Amino acid sequence: MLYVLPQEKLSSWLKGLSEKYRLFVPVSAEGFGPYEGELYLEARTRLSVKEFFLPWREPLLRFEARPGAVPEPVAGPEEKRVVFGVRPCDAKGVALIEKVFSEDEPFRRRREGTFLVGLMCREPGSQCFGWAMGLDPFAGEGLDLLFVEREGRYLVSLFTARARELLDENFAPADEEAARALENEREAFRQKYAAAPALEKLKEAPLLALYEAPFWEELALPCLNCGACTFLCPTCYCFDVQDEVVGGEGVRVRLPDACMFELYSRHASGHNPRRSPVARFRNRFLHKFKYFLDLYGEPLCVGCGRCIEECPAGVNLWDIIRTMSEV
Amino acid sequence: MSWEPKIIAFLCNWCSYAGADLAGVSRLRYPPSIRIVRVPCSSRVSPAMILDALKSGADGVLVSGCHPGDCHYLTGNLYARRRFYMLKKLLEFAGIEPERVQFAWISASEGDVFAKVVTEITERVKALGPNTKFRKVLRETGA
Amino acid sequence: MVAAPKKNMIPEPARIERVVVETDDGLLKSFYLRLLDEEAHRAFRHVPGQFAMLSVPGKGECPIGIASAPSEDLILFTVFRTGLVTDALHRLPEGTVIGLRGPLGNGYPLEDFRGKNVVLIAGGFAVTTLRATLVYLLEHRDDYGEITMIYGARNPGLLLYKPELKAWQERKDLKLYLTVDREAPGWDGLVGFVPQITEQVAPSGENAVALVCGPPIMIKFTLPVLEKCGFTPEQVYLSLENRMRCGIGLCHHCNVGPFLVCKDGPVITLAELKKLPPEY
Amino acid sequence: MGTLTEKIREAAAKVLTEGRAEVVVGYGPGPLPYRNRLVAVRSAEEVNRLVWPSFGVLNPANALHKLRGQKVALVATGCVSRAVVVLLQEGQVKREEVYLLGVPCPGMLDPAKVRALAAKVTRVEDDLSDRVLVTTSEGKKEIAREELLRANCLSCRHPSPPLYDELIEAPARPVSAEPYAQVEEIEGLSPSARWAWFEKEIVSRCLRCYACRQACPLCYCPTCFVDDSRPQWVGKTRDPVDTALYHLVRAYHLTGRCVDCGSCEAACPQGIPLRLLTKKLEKEALSAFGFEAGLDPEAPLLFTDFREDDPEDFMITHELKAAGKI
User: Are the beta carbons of A57 and B142 separated by less than 8 Å?
Assistant: First the structure.
């Protein structure tokens, strides 16, 4: 279903939404925040919408910090949230994470309580390669609504029935011309971009040959083994669980973790199956472009380009994909 | 006001702890705000220990060792002096009230000095009020 | 969105009914647990080889193999004191309530072993889930062929489940070989490392499976022996361990390549393992 | 006389052919016009992978930890050389295992400043003159080099390497006249304003990715204090107090060691001004103890040394004595 919203009606619609839901929008190049009139729509943000589903802090239990205390589950947030200005790649990231987390209670609760309203990019970002990862930004994967800006108005695609409740009187059903315009745009995108052949090659590459390939040492040399790429990545989903105790009380929280950290795979005995920085580096990319790809048919990457743009050490994901696919 | 500050005191085993002991044995009066942790030497105290005390709810921290020349390990306190100087400058720079973290030399014979130092620190911390900036609170939401 | 059963990471309260110090060094203790909820306790069903997350509030959770057989009333965990959580566990007295989340993982495909000879090879405290297996096999004795167990520890004081070992030694329908690394006072049993003893026992690979649990070095030297005895990689079952957080296939800490120890394992055949990167 | 890139390649080739080092660590081009990527060159045929890195913002001395046991040659500007000096002082590197190709540093450009120039930056031409040519989606811009320099280069007190095995000629920047201007700005604030600054600019934005720690050539502890679990000094979430504790102790651990290479700040994906904490410590070490890190491999470190007359007026017993109270 396609609707049209005049561009000048955007803020009044957002204002109306913010009265009924907790509304989040991109507030700066850094990321999303509560809607207070400010909007940053120039480009995708540095932090993705992942944090709405795998938050920096997900409490699971609360307990008295004494032997024998029986913990009490923490009920998650109840209220409904709307996130506006989600880039199609980020929404696809959520959809990819959902493949793993579909049965996870906290994730599902957040997913069910959150509307994702997409906004099409005017043009691909400078390091964007979503198309190469098989992303069709018009397909609305992970989204409830998608806004495509065109000649002073938004063409709004409805992808879920539940999202109808978000529309107000300013949304008019689109006429045929608008529908055609959107279809043309989508067609033009398909003409111009196609999934990278690298993915097909990676599917066929034998796992152990990739693992044992000689190039990892060289590729990993500049990598700092920090968590910047994993925390910024809209698809990295690994988490840690920590018990936090203050005084006599505690909470068990789930928080993002990074496979780049030495602690990530270190056993209590001190043994670490991925002790070397190279091994951790390799694991991250094998997860994204082999393990996940083999299991789900898609890479664990939406091509947003954040890691390329933000990696302080200049690690280039594209180089890695290319090198891997040549095994 | 009924609030009594909590002050964690890291006292070196050889001088300051004995000084605190003497203050007690001599029945000197000082506020009950102090909680003592005995350490082998003032140089054993790391900034993580000091900040951990504040994080865990202390309103002030005192680290005390032997006077220069008296260190059981000869120079431990002299190394410590430099470290604490730098730590204090750093905490001040970050806007943590410098009065909350104090350093002292107290010998085994200075029970009176111990009592006065504790009294003084307690008053200063009382004037500042409870440590709210650097005290961890348990949160279920947020970043 | 998929409307699947919800999974969460909420442990169930379980009381420590009994604690047994298993070894002379005191580093291994057995905890016999009962879920507080009677219904849940009765409903607790597991397969030998599975594990559970044991949880001490304020310290965290850690994965421990289930050492009791499904038929046994109390759920048994024998825990080596090594990290934050296990250290806290070791300090808890009988009667304390802790958290239990499980059973998790796949367990041994015991149904598939029916009619076959089963060889259990254990080193050190990794014997726990093989204890569960052995108890099960003995309960279903007629369903299986010859049962052989080779179990070694560094010294006699480090053997677990000593009273049971004694009872098992007397059984005619079980070949039990206990061994220690070195001669020790009062020990008149076998002396030698597990791989050597396995070589002497020389179990036949014909119509048999071997379940091997032990430290990496023991496994490394035992596998070639089994190969010589005629066991193919498909007939050898191992149990993996890796650091894990969730135990339910989400957090990805325990991955060995695409294989998640918590969800796809911990039990894996040598044949499958050979296809994976050696990250365990 | 060639460009600095040519001189570096030439020197690297010589070092490798003469066997002075097995591997030369320097920078090559990166995936973006404002990033350089570390490269390890092992033969004279490969030296063309090396360039003068206008954006060599991560200290390559960090690679010494990865390449331990190999004889490594480093292209060493002032702060690279100084980091090696500290590693030598601390016994982390053997002098005979490192060969320093010293380069008096003309200063490096700040990727963040260049990136901020336009939506897309496609090319940066830096011939070390006083202008930099930046090609962007909005056209070509000629910008004063000084304006694009990194903050730590602007405040650099030692652009030239204090330790080297050979020196490559290059136009070094002058020693900064106002090395502590940024620090003084914060010092000038009230305590509560400083706390607000610390909370807002450093603590609240930190993601706990540890890029700052990982990028630091002097953070080499096998287990960092944040990774200790017994006791756990620092909680792992983004709790503000834990994060504050992390940043204070991280900075403090660099007291008298930090060479202000700015790697921490450059590595931070959030652009947090991390350097200010260590710069403050540098300033205090200089004013109170006349100490500067990384100048002399034979000298003691700030904290492995003391003087009888080190300042103690910060101590409460000193204050009370001065006031006649004790």
Answer: yes
Low-confidence ranges of chain D (pLDDT < 50): none
Residues of B in contact with D183 (CB under 8 A): 93
pLDDT, position B142: 62
Strands A172-173 and A2-6: antiparallel
The verdict on C229 and C247 lying in the same domain is no
Give the count of alpha carbons within 13 A of B3, CB side only. Answer: 15
Query: Is A61 part of any domain?
Result: no
Range of the domain at C126: 110-239
Give the ranges where chain D is alpha helix by DSSP (H).
4-17, 63-66, 78-89, 111-115, 145-148, 151-154, 181-187, 191-197, 211-215, 240-252, 263-267, 275-289, 316-322
- What ipTM does this complex have? 0.94
Domain count, chain A: 2
Closest by alpha carbon to C124, among C25, C257, C17? Answer: C25
Strand order in the sheet with B60-65: B34-39, B7-12, B60-65, B101-105
At A102-125, the pLDDT tens digits run 999 999 999 999 999 999 998 888
Residues in A touching B136 (Cβ below 8 Å) = 246
Taking an 8 Å cut-off on Cβ atoms, the answer to whether A251 and B138 are in contact is yes
pLDDT tens digits, one per residue of C57-92: 999 999 999 999 999 999 999 999 998 999 999 999
Is B141 in Cβ contact with A246 (below 8 Å)?
no
Residues C116 and C233 in one domain: yes
Q: Are A71 and C99 a contacting pair at CB < 8 A?
A: yes
User: Is there a single domain that holds both residue C139 and residue C203?
Assistant: yes
The token pair that represents C229 in the structure block: 């005895």
Which range marks the domain in which residue A132 is found?
2-55+67-195
End residue of a domain, out of C88, C103, C118: C103
Tell me the CA distances in angstroms from D302 to A251, B73, B103, C139, one per residue in order: 41, 19, 19, 70
Which chain B residues are within 8 Å of D252, Cβ to Cβ?
Answer: 47, 86-87, 90
Residue A273 contacts B where some CB pair is shorter than 8 Å? no
Chain B interface disruption, residue of D182, D190, D248, most B CBs within 10 A: D248
* Shortest CA distance from B135: residue in chain A: A246
Q: D223 and chain B: CB distance < 8 Å anywhere?
A: no
Round the average pLDDT of chain A to a whole number and report it: 94
Q: What is the pLDDT of residue A268?
A: 87
Q: Give a yes or no: residue C122 inside a domain.
A: yes
Q: Are residues A92 and A240 in the same domain?
A: no
Nearest Cα of chain A lies from the Cα of D58 at a distance, in angstroms, of: 7
What is the rounded distance in angstroms from the CA atom of residue B96 to the CA atom of residue C89? Answer: 38
Whether C120 and C179 share a structural domain: yes
Q: What is the pLDDT of residue C4?
A: 39
pLDDT of residue C5: 41
User: Please, what's the b/e burial string for C189-200 (b: 16 or more CB within 10 A of its CB; e: otherwise)?
Assistant: eeebbbbbbbbe
pLDDT digits (tens, 9 = 90+) for A195-211: 778 999 999 999 999 99
A217 and A315 in one domain?
yes
> Do C190 and C264 sit in the same domain of this protein?
no
Which pair of structure tokens corresponds to residue B82?
């430099």
Q: Does C47 reside within a domain?
A: yes
Same domain, A175 and A190: yes
Q: Is D230 on the interface with C (CB under 8 A)?
A: yes
Distance from CA of B135 to the nearest CA of D (A): 7
Q: Domain boundary at A155, A180, A195, which? A: A195
What percent of chain A has pLDDT above 90? 86
Tell whether A207 lies on the interface with C, counting CB pairs under 8 A. yes
Residues 45-64 of B with CB under 8 A from A: 56-57
pLDDT tens for each residue of D82-110: 999 999 999 999 999 999 999 999 999 99
Delineate the domains of chain B, giving CATH numbers in brackets.
7-128 (3.40.50.960)
A276 touches chain C (CB under 8 A): no
Residue at which a domain ends, from A195, A217, A237: A195
A188 and A209 fall within a common domain:
no
